[in-house]
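step 4 of 6: structure.
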Amino acid sequence: MSDDESMERSPRDEETEVPALLDRLGPEVEAGDRGLIETLGLLPYALDDPPVRAEVKAGLMAEVERSRAAATGRLATVERRTRWLMPLAAALALALLGLAGLQFSRLEDQQRTIDELSAQLGRVEADGAELAEMRRALARTDARLRMMTRRGTEFCLLKPVGDDPRFARATATMVIAPERDEWFLAVEGLEPCGGEVCYQLWFLTQGGSVAAAAFDAGEGSQRIELGGKGQVPSGVRAISITHERASEPAEAPVTVLFADQAMTLL
Amino acid sequence: MDTEQAKARRAAAAEDRRLLAEIAAGRPDALSALYDRYSGMLQALAYRVLGDLSDAEEILQEAFLQVWNQATRYDPGRSSVSTWLVLITRSRAIDRLRSRRVAQRTVAAAEKEKRQTHTSPQGPADVLRDERRRRLAEELSRLPPEQRQVLEMAFYRGMTQSEIAAESAVPLGTVKTRTLLAVRKLRKALGAQYEELL
């Protein structure tokens, strides 16, 4: 170690910073010690510098030109892309608009289909109700047919009473099951009553009259059938159908049909 | 005379900054002018680090391409233009040195360079550079050999203080002290020159 090394004194930070700065010396050095950086930057001036070959500069400038051309090309590319950007955006917007219209049209079609299917479903349900009613009617008819073909079933033919022309062509048939726990009545030729008037079916017994059912005739004097489950009163001597006010059944009823004879077929 | 040279150096530094600003604006002619001003010294630096002229020429091209591409990154608050160029070239050369592991060849070339006598063309534009070279050589020659060696190992070979200590077989503290003293002496001797660069 030379004398000046041992004699010189330096601030503590300089002792540590100068070697550390040399260890990391680069183009991005910190400006903490500008004087030190510039001193080191002067060092290469001590070197002899032979002429640089012209080809080196030519190569550098050619590379710079290529770099500029590439940058210009990139710029042109960006400009081209920018130029097409608005028409492309407009085309996309139109396409989206068309797509939205198509979707809306399809939505309407789907809604129409749903409405049609709903209507069909309603018709099917209505048909189903009608079919159920037909099945119920068929079951009633079947039950009455079986009742009519049983041994001991009684039939009573009710005939018009009096001279009232409204009831002159009316007829009715009462069928009573052998066990007398079920009956049904088929009536034809009665006109609809209208208003508060109705027809009343009576079982006439020794002890008095027992009301069995109140009913009205159908449009056009069509055949109607009444059915009843329940015990037919014992000691029935006759059956009658009267025409009377529903609110005042006991006041002056008019007997329309009457039967006091029963017969069995089987 | 000194005052005129100082004025000339300040004008040169201002011209460097103007050229770099034009390079940042994309002017190739400015790059060409800056190249003419510094290519000789920077090639010498790269050659000093790498010991191979072909490598040095490549580094010179790469350094100026970096200047072309990154001129906007130059910060005048951190260094002068010439020092920025030196540091770019040095960093690239040392990176190349480390990647190619040509350290041995570099040492041999450095020894050879010491024995060579270069004859650079002399012209009006070289006056300042020659004056600077003369002053540097003079001040470096005044340094004790062990201090100059430490400085050159750190600057031209990119060696850390620990690596220098290991290769020189001296304690790390001694290496740091020699480095500090060398830099301090140069700084004192060349203070006027680098201040004119700012």
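step 5 of 6: annotate
 - The radius of gyration of chain B is 17 Å.
 - The CA atoms of residues 24 and 72 of chain B lie 5 Å apart.
step 6 of 6: archive
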